[in-house]
Amino acid sequence: MRSIRSFAKARSRLSANHKKILNQENDFLFSANTKLAFEETLRSTNNKILEIGFGEGDSLFEMAVNNPDLNFFGIEVYETGVARTCSKIEESGIKNLKIYLGDVVDLILDKDIETTFDLLLFLFPDPWHKRKHNKRRLLSSHNLKKFRSYLSKKGFIFFRTDWQEYADSVKKICNDQKVEFQDLEKLSLLNQLILTKYQRKGIEAGRSITSLLFK
User: Fold this and answer.
1) What radius of gyration, in Å, describes the C-alpha atoms of the chain?
2) What does each of the 215 residues of the chain score in pLDDT, given as a tens digit?
């Protein structure tokens, strides 16, 4: 059975430069038309970090710049965020960050790719706070089990949210699946995460931030 979409696609206005970036040929941007090439890149690359739903890509880009020995990947459906991140990649010339413009459901949830990741990042995914929409959450019981199957032996999942009910839901799912929670200090890479737009919004609204690291 096909997984439920975890996002509602909104209209985005792209500048002429962003449209050019998304349409030009390069070695760091992939989409549905080049999905097989992206899958092969994942299979043939080691030391992989993947952020799913990277938004504007600030944290993802900064980590890639600061860790040239690691290989970073990002999946995002929103064209504006993808274009901005690709623009940074092009300007900086870094070679260890690849982007996929598309839905994680089509890429790794509804199929199996022979690859593993040392870290999967979920930074402030849409909480779908209305109860009738909870089934759309990216970290559902079914999805979490599938994501965990992509972890390497030393791999972790990192989840951060400003929505307490979502945090409680993920904790319950983890407990049901007998997941081992880890001390955040166990992974120094997490210290490099910068404030995202949604994290700032959560803080400004007075909501507490929950961070979970698990295997």
Assistant:
1) 17
2) 445 454 445 555 777 887 888 888 899 999 999 999 999 999 999 999 999 999 999 999 999 999 999 999 999 999 999 999 999 999 999 999 999 999 999 899 988 999 999 999 999 998 866 666 468 799 999 999 999 999 999 999 999 999 999 999 999 999 999 998 999 998 999 999 998 887 888 888 889 999 999 99
Q: Can you tell me the distance from the alpha carbon of 177 to that of 180, in angstroms, rounded to the nearest whole number?
A: 9
Q: Known catalytic residue: 126?
A: yes
Residue 153 lies in a domain: yes
- The answer to whether residue 1 is domain-embedded is no
Does the residue 181 lie in any domain?
yes
Query: What are the tokens at 19?
Result: 């449209």
Of the candidates 106, 112, 118, 126, the residue annotated as catalytic is: 126
- Host domain of residue 170: 16-214
Q: Give the global pTM.
A: 0.90
Task: Say if 10 falls within a structural domain.
Answer: no
How many domains are there within the chain? 1
